[in-house]
């Protein structure tokens, strides 16, 4: 036996070995190519690429250098970033591999992974289609928004002196959702309502804050840090957070969503079973509609008025079109088709506002996207604002120019890269409602007021910078709202 091992290998064995080596030589690089990971900037120990965390560098520098699919390290956490219209559409619409929300320690810690926005799987599907059916009915919503815009105009005309337009707009938009969630609107100075609105704003801000988002990438244990606990208390303070409190939602017994579900629960008792209609899911669906539907729409409206004050000629043209086509009467949804300039301005406002700059998903399975391998579970950041500013798509990506949405004859034209509501299976569930609100609130405000910079400030000094976390909104600012009844300074 020993001698057998010491024997010189035969020619055929040698040829066989060479053949295997050659095959490996040919196959392996191809295999590696298939598993090539997206490129990205060099990372630092512990910090990853956090020091480069600046939207401008993500978008221009990194995208220019590494292409539209690249890797970015939030501390130790690797995230694949998708940028540019073509890449985003391909990922969200053509490929179904990125429709799962990424796991988040904070969301799990606060038990917010029920409902719609942070949920996945069958439960998400069920709650989403339930919410979508509750959001149906254009005529119903048109009436509610028109009624609420009248309240908004009245309160703005009644008040004297310095007042918070930001607050009134937020209240008005909240009331539209309240009519669905609670079955009624609230007076703007109702103390319960005021606290509910204040907490919704603060919670959305806290959830998206960089410190909280970054903290979770390091270690779940950091979420036990005293500072975070204090923040967490704000979400769960049962007596003070009405929309996060089952008891309160029950007390406001006209809550249509829950009433509908009580019917569904009765159906279940009678044999029509649906395991997803449990209390956590229903409550979080209410919370999601309330939070996703208010901050976004009201921030966009505030940005709209700021842009009008900064670009008075565009404001003139909108007001001119409104008075020519609609006159003094209330704008209705069916007027949209006869208001191409106004419609183009609203779209351009949304493009510039980029209210939801990105969404965080994850690869639901091992996937090769473009030429890159993305492992199952890898967080994928879909950089929506990169589509809204894509230099390959827009003539003047960084300039407020309503002509982006007009053809040469002045008709409204759709644009492929207009993705403020995202796309694909998880596209914004409230897109249709949001579009109605933007049209009706914006035109009502412009029919009654002219917006200008405050005294002593030139239009060039108005700052268009957007700030925030999950959602962006303009920096605090003042404007003058001038109506036939006088002039008011608003902020
Ligand atoms: C200008 C206003 C709005 C903007 C820009 C906006 C944008 C978005 C975006 C970008 C997403 C993420 C989609 C994704 O993950 O790919 C989203 C999700 C969502 N939005 Fe909106 N939204 C607006 C208004 C509304 C309104 C008025 C409602 C409801 C009343 C609403 C309800 C939702 C819900 C429930 C989701 C989660 C959808 C899911 O995960 O399946 N949004 N929105």
TrEMBL record:
Q: Which Gene3D superfamilies match?
A: Cytochrome P450
One Gene Ontology cellular component term attached to this UniProt record is: endoplasmic reticulum membrane
Q: Which cofactor does it need?
A: heme
Q: Which Pfam families match?
A: p450 (PF00067)
Keywords in alphabetical order: Endoplasmic reticulum, Heme, Iron, Membrane, Metal-binding, Microsome, Monooxygenase, Oxidoreductase, Transmembrane, Transmembrane helix
Query: Principal localization?
Result: endoplasmic reticulum
Which amino acids does the record list as binding heme? 428
Q: From what superkingdom does this record's organism come?
A: Eukaryota
GO biological process terms on file: organic acid metabolic process; xenobiotic metabolic process
Q: Which InterPro entries match?
A: Cyt_P450 (IPR001128), Cyt_P450_CS (IPR017972), Cyt_P450_E_grp-I (IPR002401), Cyt_P450_sf (IPR036396), Cytochrome_P450_fam2 (IPR050182)
Q: Which SUPFAM superfamilies match?
A: Cytochrome P450
Q: Where in the cell is it found?
A: Endoplasmic reticulum membrane; Microsome membrane
Q: PROSITE patterns under this entry?
A: CYTOCHROME_P450 (PS00086)
GO molecular function list: heme binding; iron ion binding; oxidoreductase activity, acting on paired donors, with incorporation or reduction of molecular oxygen, reduced flavin or flavoprotein as one donor, and incorporation of one atom of oxygen
Write down the membrane topology: Peripheral membrane protein
Query: Which residues span the membrane?
Result: 6-28
Give the family per the record.
Belongs to the cytochrome P450 family.
Q: What is this protein called?
A: Uncharacterized protein
Q: Which organism is it from?
A: Mola mola
């Amino acid at each position: 036996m020993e001698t057998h091992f010491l024997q010189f290998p035969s020619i055929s064995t040698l040829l066989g070995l060479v053949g295997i080596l050659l095959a490996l030589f040919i196959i392996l690089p191809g295999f590696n190519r298939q598993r090539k990971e997206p490129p990205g900037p060099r990372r630092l120990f512990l910090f990853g690429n956090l020091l480069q965390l600046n939207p401008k560098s993500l978008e221009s520098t990194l995208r220019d250098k590494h292409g539209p699919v690249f890797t970015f390290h939030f501390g130790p956490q690797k995230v694949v970033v998708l940028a540019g219209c073509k890449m985003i559409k391909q990922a969200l619409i053509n490929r179904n591999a990125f429709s799962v929300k990424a796991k988040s320690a904070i969301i799990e810690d606060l038990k917010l992974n029920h409902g719609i926005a942070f949920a996945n799987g069958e439960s998400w599907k069920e709650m989403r289609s339930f919410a979508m059916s509750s959001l149906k009915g254009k005529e119903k919503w048109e009436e509610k928004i028109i009624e609420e815009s009248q309240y908004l105009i009245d309160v703005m005309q009644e008040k004297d002196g310095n007042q918070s337009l930001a607050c009134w707009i937020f209240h008005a938009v909240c009331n539209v959702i309240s009519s669905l969630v609670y079955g009624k609107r609230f007076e703007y100075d109702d103390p319960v309502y005021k606290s509910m609105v204040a907490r919704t704003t603060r919670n959305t801000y806290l959830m998206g804050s960089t410190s909280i988002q970054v903290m979770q990438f390091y270690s779940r244990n950091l979420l036990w840090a005293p500072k975070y606990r204090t923040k967490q208390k704000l979400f769960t303070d049962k007596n003070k957070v009405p929309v996060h409190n089952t008891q309160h939602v029950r007390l406001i017994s006209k809550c249509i969503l829950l009433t509908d579900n009580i019917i569904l629960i009765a159906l279940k008792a009678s044999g029509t079973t649906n395991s997803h209609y449990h209390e956590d899911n229903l409550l979080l669906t209410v919370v999601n509609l309330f939070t996703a539907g208010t901050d976004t729409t009201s921030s966009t409206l505030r940005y709209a008025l700021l842009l009008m004050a900064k670009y008075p000629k565009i404001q003139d043209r909108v007001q001119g079109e409104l008075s020519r086509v609609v006159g003094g009467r209330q704008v209705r949804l069916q007027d949209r088709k006869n208001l191409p300039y106004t419609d183009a301005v609203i779209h351009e406002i949304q493009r510039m506002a980029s209210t939801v700059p990105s969404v965080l998903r994850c690869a639901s399975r091992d996937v090769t996207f473009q030429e890159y391998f993305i492992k199952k579970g890898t967080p994928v950041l879909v950089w929506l604002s990169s589509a809204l500013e894509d230099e390959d798509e827009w003539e003047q990506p960084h300039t407020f120019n309503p002509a982006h949405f007009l053809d040469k004859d002045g008709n409204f034209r759709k644009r492929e890269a207009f993705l403020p509501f995202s796309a694909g299976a998880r596209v914004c569930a409230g897109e249709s409602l949001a579009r109605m609100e933007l049209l009706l609130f914006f035109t009502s405000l412009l029919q009654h007021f002219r917006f200008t910079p405050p005294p002593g400030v030139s239009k060039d000094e108005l700052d268009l910078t957007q700030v925030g976390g999950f959602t962006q909104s303009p920096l605090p600012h003042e404007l003058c709202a001038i109506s036939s009844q006088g002039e008011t300074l608003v902020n």
